[in-house]
Amino acid sequence: MWRCMVYNETDNSVDLRLCQDFGLILSVFSLVYLIVCFPVGLCYNVLLVVVNLSNKVTMTMPDVYFVNIAIAGLVLNLVAPIELLGPSFTRWPMWEYNNELYITLLILFNISSLVIMYSTTLLSLDYYIERALPRTYMSSVYNTKHVCGFIWGGAVLTSFSSLLFYVCNHVSTKIIECSKMQNKEAADAIMMFIGYVVPAVAVLYAFVLILRIRKESTPLDQDSGRLDPSIHRLLLASVCVQFLLWTPYYTTLLVHTVAGAPGSHPNKQHLTTYFFLRCLSELLAFSSSFAIPLMYRQMNKNFSHKLQRLLKRLHCRDQSCPHERSAVQQVVT
């Protein structure tokens, strides 16, 4: 199983053993992820979405972006078990999937990655706008909700161009239109540029602006309407973690784009190493679906209060809760 099918009995036993060791390592990592990270990420992503949507009145601009990231994380949670229990990640796969399912999983994975990266990027830019121009409503919750809708639409449209290359790479060359588009490297190049290079440049630019404005103390810094200072630490940590977990995956796309199809490489040991690193980088990318909601839960001071409010509301059921009436009065005033 795994990628050792490229070897036979006449191959060097050292290379075959290396392939089997890589397959065993991936199998163990996949199992650990499915037992520990998958349920934790699923629960915390659902909790993040439910708690914030049940407290819409108190949601802030960063909350909307993190809800968007959590929804994309749920999509990754949907893809992860199917992918990790398949033949690419384990020596004992539970099922074999065809090209159609492979392409579907790949497109869902690409859409989620684009949504996560661009939500993080726009969060950085909107945080700068909120710091520089408070109370202008340019980065309001209402506008952010529409921006998140555009992020999903843009991710789907961007993935559609890659979808054409992937589909044509798996269909018969008898189709004239596809015979000229059987180039998986082009699809990886599109994802590398749009999904990583553009967000990385935008985040770097946003952080330069944020650092510049933090050095310039103004009377507006005492404005009570500004974002909680803990949001800055959460933003910095989430951006660093996102790029740390997704950079290896996009690096493998860059290698594939520059070096060409790995299957054409004559050295089978290099081929095995490439596939191992590719699968390991995807596993790290899947890990972002549980790392971010955990960070949000620990670093957002208001989340615990929202969760307690939701639990009290569920406890009250249909009765009118006193704490709800006081909270609404505070918001109105």
UniProtKB/TrEMBL annotation:
Q: Which GO terms describe its cellular component?
A: plasma membrane
Using the UniProt record, give the first listed, main subcellular location. membrane
Instruction: Report membrane topology.
Output: Multi-pass membrane protein
Q: Which PANTHER family does the UniProt entry name for this protein? A: G-PROTEIN COUPLED RECEPTOR 146-RELATED, G-PROTEIN COUPLED RECEPTOR 182 AND ESTROGEN RECEPTOR 1
Name the gene for this chain.
LOC113071510
Q: Which UniProt keywords apply?
A: Cell membrane, G-protein coupled receptor, Membrane, Receptor, Transducer, Transmembrane, Transmembrane helix
Membrane-spanning residues where?
Answer: 22-51, 63-82, 102-125, 146-167, 189-213, 234-255, 275-296
Q: Name one GO molecular function term.
A: G protein-coupled receptor activity
User: Know the name of this protein?
Assistant: Probable G-protein coupled receptor 146
Note whether Transmembrane helix occurs among the keywords. Answer: yes
| Highest taxon listed in the record's lineage | Eukaryota
Fetch the Pfam families from UniProt.
Answer: 7tm_1
What compartments host this protein?
Answer: Cell membrane
| Regions annotated as coiled coil | none
Q: Which residues form the G-protein coupled receptors family 1 profile domain?
A: 44-296
Q: InterPro entries from the entry? A: GPCR_Rhodpsn, GPCR_Rhodpsn_7TM, GPER1-like, GPR146
UniProt-listed SUPFAM superfamilies: Family A G protein-coupled receptor-like
